[in-house]
Specification:
364 residues, mainly alpha, 13 helices, transmembrane, transmembrane helix, Sugar_P_trans_dom
Length: 364
């Protein structure tokens, strides 16, 4: 009798973690789209999010230090600037361009185009020899690229500028996640925990994106009555409050991914990510009024088939592999906070943090 109860509790816990991940992942997409209807400064919004994430990461590190009694890792300047900076710059450009594109395109087109990041991740994984080539990858590429073509073909709400931005963000995202995987697999750096990784990445991301912000939004935002030329306090407080909420959603998304993978598996997150894309498009069509014809839905289905095939291949080829260095190192006692105790990790060749795993990356 104890076995069914334990199985039921584990299932309910997994469902709860998936729903938590959905809330943050889908919520931040719709929230940013809603916010930019009246706040046309996506790069400044991204900088505000980075600041909030850094502060929350620092507080979380402090709490983990108090709980475990062990000091958190702090990199020296040489490693920080030479090894972390490339990842931070690619991450900043990916997030900045993604948020910027929401000024021009619908959530459905954004979701569909960002899903093609798996193509660029596959490409750079092969370049850096993080993944072995196999003939099935050609099928994956054909399915995803043809799905994107069908989705954008004769679309009534297509915007070329926004599409190019988000496609460029997907390309940079391939570099970003490949570098992130390499960074977090370097055991000597000690950045296997995503909280430590976020803490170290945010400052460099901020300064990497700041020149682009100054060039595109510096003059206009300095004369904006919503921030720097306010005549009343309430608009300023409202802007700061809405930007802070977005930053908390971004932090919650990263941490919910970590919880889901550490308590279940990266395969669970991958499958949940596929259904998340479906939920996002359905909500975009019903809530935001995005218009999609039969060909668009067919293209989206073909793209999801390609992503699902990629996830299946990753699962199949990783079954007989030895657990990676990151898996072994991620089982350290310092990760066993009360919320994370009794975690069970898959024997797949996958990450236990929700930031460096390729299966997770391709779906968010």
């Amino acid at each position: 009798m104890a076995f069914p109860v334990q199985f039921l509790c584990k299932g309910l816990r997994s469902v709860g973690l998936v729903l938590l991940y959905y809330a943050f992942s889908i919520g931040i997409t719709f929230y940013n789209k809603w916010l930019m209807k009246g706040f046309h400064y996506p790069l400044f919004m991204t900088l505000a999010h980075l600041t909030v994430i850094f502060c929350l990461s620092a507080l979380t590190r402090r709490a983990m230090h108090c709980w475990t009694g062990k000091p958190r890792v702090i990199l020296n300047w040489t490693d920080y600037l030479l090894k972390v900076a490339p990842t931070a710059l690619a991450t900043a450009l990916d997030i900045g361009l993604s948020n910027w594109s929401l000024l021009f395109i619908t959530i459905s087109l954004y979701t569909m185009t960002k899903s093609t990041a798996v193509l660029f991740i596959l490409f750079f994984s092969l370049v850096f020899k993080l993944e072995e080539s196999n003939p099935f990858l050609i099928v994956v590429v054909l399915l995803i690229s043809s799905g994107l073509f069908m989705f954008t073909y004769e679309s009534t709400q297509f915007n070329l500028e926004g599409f190019v931005m988000v496609l460029l963000a997907s390309f940079i995202g391939g570099i970003r996640w490949t570098l992130t995987q390499i960074l977090m697999q370097k055991s000597e750096l000690g950045l296997q925990n995503p909280i430590d990784a976020m803490f170290h990445l945010q400052p460099l991301m901020f300064f990497g994106l700041f020149p682009l912000f100054l060039f595109n939004e510096g003059v206009s935002i300095s004369t904006s009555e919503k921030l720097f030329r306010v005549t009343e306090l309430s608009p300023l407080l409202y802007s700061l409050c809405t930007l802070s909420i977005g930053g908390m959603l971004a932090f919650g998304l990263g941490f919910s991914e970590f919880l889901l993978v550490s308590r279940t598996s990266s395969l669970t997150l991958s499958i949940a990510g596929i259904f998340k894309e479906v939920c996002t498009l359905l909500l975009a069509a019903s809530v935001m009024g995005d218009k999609m014809n039969a060909l668009n839905w067919l293209g989206f289905t073909v793209c999801l088939c390609g992503i699902s095939l990629h996830v299946a291949l990753k699962t199949y080829y990783s079954k007989n592999k030895v657990p990676s260095l990151r898996q072994l190192s991620s089982r350290s006692p310092e990760l066993e906070l009360p919320l994370l105790q009794q975690s069970r990790y898959d024997a797949e060749d996958s990450a236990a943090d929700g930031y460096g795993d390729e299966e997770e990356i391709t779906l968010h």
